[in-house]
Amino acid sequence: MTPSFHPRLVNDRFGDPGVFVEILHRREALLFDLGDLSPLSTRDLLRVSHVFVTHGHIDHFIGFDALLRVLVGRDRIVEVVGPRGFADRVGHKLLGYQWDLVDRYETDLVFEVTELEADLTTRRARFRFKRGFAREDLGAGEAPDGLVARGDGFCVRAAVLEHHGPSIGYAVEEPEHVNIWRNRLAERGLAPGPWLQALKQAVIDRRGDAFPVETPDGVASLGALREMLSVTPGQRVAYVTDVADTPGNREAIAQLAGGADLLFIESCFAAGDEAQAQARAHLTTRAAGEIARAAGVRRVEPFHFSPRYEQGGADAMIAEVAAAFESQTRAGSRSESGATAS
Ligand SMILES: [Zn+2]
Ligand SMILES: [Zn+2]
Do you know which NCBIfam families this protein is assigned to (predicted)? Predict the structure, then answer.
């Protein structure tokens, strides 16, 4: 099946962390972290509809201004998700500029910021260009199952992890693909039509077997129609960075990224520098590979390598991640899995 998500690292593996995700046949794009965004074109930045920031360290947030510069003067709503206190950080960035000319514009640029807490409660705030980006509080809410964003063809789940303070891990998921067996439809004498869309939606919404579905023959239960369907899971891509190697983080990441097609995971330190990694609340290459293996992901893309290893090149770091990732991978899945050096 053609993948819907086309994610790529914004910078090289030693540069500021960040992943840009394009979605097949969709104009909108997603951005994970706002470090140095200079490799992204104006066209790329104009497509960003959702931004997911792990935490407020400068290598993850300094690119906010680059995004703002491109968007000012346009009609746009950008959803931004970050940890506790993040709305204030966005507000401080915005108030660093003088907005006395906003009346001359017809357009409005809106940032809607969601702060996620470890208990999956949220607080939301809005910043509108037309109001000189003065903060408007939108109140408290919840993110059941960690669901922090939903758009056309995707949803994003999050988990609050531990770094120096919270750092949020994210996973973008595509809805399940529901296919209809046309021959089984014909066997039951049911004509295809718009009702099949409602049937597919009922499956995607995980309705129970008793759920009523309108068919050309009258109402039938979802359970009675399931034999005409095949369901394949949608693509999943996870993004995790700036996390300490703790049992709690390992468990939470394995859950968030469990079975993902692709996991972007930080590997700041070499396997031999575990003490430094612990001191700075980051992962080693080995820990990253072990976590990817525990999560059962198909492919792992390590990034956020410390510049101290730049001389030795990225390949040595990638090899350490791959060794830990593959060391106990079942023989059957070996050929499919691996860390990639792209
Ligand atoms: Zn950090
Ligand atoms: Zn960082």
Answer: PRK02126.1
